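Query form — protein 4Fe-4S ferredoxin-type domain-containing protein

QUESTION: What is the three-dimensional structure of this chain?
INPUT:
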Amino acid sequence: MESLVTEIKNAALSMGYEKCGIIKIADMADFEEKLNERMEHLPETKPFYERFTGFAHLQDTYPWAKSIVVCVGQYGKYHVPEHLQGLIGKAYLFDNRIDERAKEHQESLRFEAAMQKIGLKTETSRKFGITALRWAAVKAGLGIARRNNFFYTESGSWVHLEAWLIDKELELIEVPAVKECPEHCNLCVKSCPTASLSKPYTMNPLSCISFLTTFGGRNLPHERCSGQMGGWIYGCDVCQDVCPMNKSCWKATEEFPALAELSEHISLEKVLKMDYDFLAQVMPAKFFYITKDDAWKWKVNAINAMVNDYKAEYAEPIYDACNDSNEKVREMAEWAINKLNLRKKG
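ANSWER: The structure tokens for 4Fe-4S ferredoxin-type domain-containing protein are given below.
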């Protein structure tokens, strides 16, 4: 079995992954205990977190599975278009999960094929993860979870995680080489705009900006956190950007495929004026948390960001949005005009 472990690790590293570990299925059992702790601390999050209890009982769905292969890839090597800083979270700018043009996506496919070639049965979920990825990566000793809840290696938190179930009982556990958080540091907690990160190692996902700009925030005019969401329209990086353990970790030595071209279409004004065909067809191919049926969400987020950091040039696109074809956008535009005390046209 040791030779099989070596083959898996060597294959992962040859595909460009930074790290690879293997844990037994049983190692996920105590994930449920952690979920229960969070739900007890924040009862309102129970409907959200209950959905993930299956990650602690993987063999209920995959009775053949014996182990989990976990890999870490680095994305803190790409150039971030300057005008998208503070607008879209970096993890989403360089998201390779469904982007077939990304070399990391192709490497993921090749790695899975390599495992199958040596006789392993595999199962994964590239979009949302086959299990709790950060928990599994910590169990494998590939890094640590910091107080902002993000997983860190020597590359900081600017990494993506992938996992596969396999049908052999194997183990490959490393000893993390990264330092723990500084003893009295709580910059991430203090900096969280919505106080979603209310204390170290916990959070309320329902008030997290990344959630509110994607899956949540469906009624922003009445959302209590709308004023704290800043200029973000998809995701948020605040608790990672302020983290001293991320200092100097971003290298920006490479260009991510097709991002520069797409970024030319993205600004608050451009999103608000954007054609719905573009919003429904082009944007979800990259930013799939907002589906084509919810394309209006981009415009609502843009209006909210305009309100939070208002400039005179925003008035015209906000007025125009009052005539948008979508009721949600019209409602948000009217809310913005009242919030900003702008004179109504006509």
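ADDITIONAL NOTE: Residues 200 and 233 are 25 Å apart (CA to CA).
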